[in-house]
Design brief:
The structure holds two protein chains of two kinds. By secondary structure, chain A is an all-beta fold. Chain A has no helices and eleven strands. Chain A is globular. By secondary structure, chain B is mainly β. Helices cover 0% and strands 50% of the residues of chain B. In chain B, strands 2, 5, 6, 10, 11 and 12 form a six-stranded mixed sheet that branches. In chain B, strands 3-9-8-7 form a four-stranded antiparallel sheet, with no helix packed on it. The chains are: A mainly beta, B mainly beta.
């Protein structure tokens, strides 16, 4: 089955620690995205990548970092610089970056900072 | 700048009722795309429909229908004969062709409408 996997489903972190969220897709999509969702709010774009070894900041990139070493993988690191990291994180992919492309989403990772 | 407004934060209906979810968008671009996504309690967003700005035909898919009106910048979603399984958060989103986006945002999402269908 083609799709997007994210791991772990739940993640707990102590303040001051960096954590990395995994995102893998087997849809052969070029574009990948990371979104943050807070309770009662829409999705906000953190980072996106059009192609391997290339990525761009989204609307709320501060305190986050990403890499795109393989087409299938787009891990997100939440650094200690992120002031309020507790949120639900969603990874998505699409054939290309153009706005008409449907985005496919993973099941999400819920991060809680203790 | 683009903006999507879903004024209804929460809607609660009884099974078999019809329900309409409102979506109003703002953009200066003449070419754009509108989407609806469903987010069930599991968390994963599921694509429901895409519409481009040049196609104002209404669409029906089973119990779902969409009403796109450029004159009022709205793209409303109606569920007929709602079922408990329809309970979810529904997001409306606006997309622009590559090169016209700002701040790197390819899709601008509304804040979502939580729909609860009670038995």
């Amino acid at each position: 089955d083609g799709g997007i996997t994210q791991s772990p489903k739940y993640l707990f972190r102590k303040e001051g620690q960096n954590v990395t969220l995994s995102c893998e897709q087997n849809l052969n999509h070029d574009a990948m995205y990371w979104y943050r969702q807070d309770p009662g709010q829409g999705l906000r774009l953190i980072y996106y990548s059009q192609i391997v070894n290339d990525f761009q900041k989204g609307d709320i990139a501060e305190g986050y970092s990403v890499s795109r070493e393989k087409k299938e993988s787009f891990p997100l690191t939440v650094t200690s610089a992120q002031k309020n990291p507790t949120a639900f994180y969603l990874c998505a992919s699409s054939i290309g970056l153009a706005g008409h492309n449907e985005q496919f989403f993973g099941p999400g990772t819920r991060l809680t900072v203790l | 700048a683009q903006k999507v407004t879903q004024a209804q934060t929460e809607i609660s209906v009884v099974e078999k009722e019809d329900v309409t979810l409102d979506c109003v968008y703002e953009t200066r671009d003449t070419t754009y795309y509108l989407f609806w996504y469903k987010q069930p309690p599991s968390g994963e967003l599921v694509f429901l429909i895409r519409r481009n700005s040049f196609d104002e035909q209404n669409e029906i898919s089973g119990r779902y229908s969409w009403n796109f009106q450029k004159s009022t910048s709205s793209f409303n979603f109606t569920i007929t004969a709602s079922q408990v399984v329809d309970s979810a958060v529904y997001f409306c989103a606006l997309g622009l062709p590559e090169g016209q986006e700002t701040s790197g945002s390819r899709l601008t999402f509304g804040e979502g409408t939580q729909l609860t269908v009670n038995p």
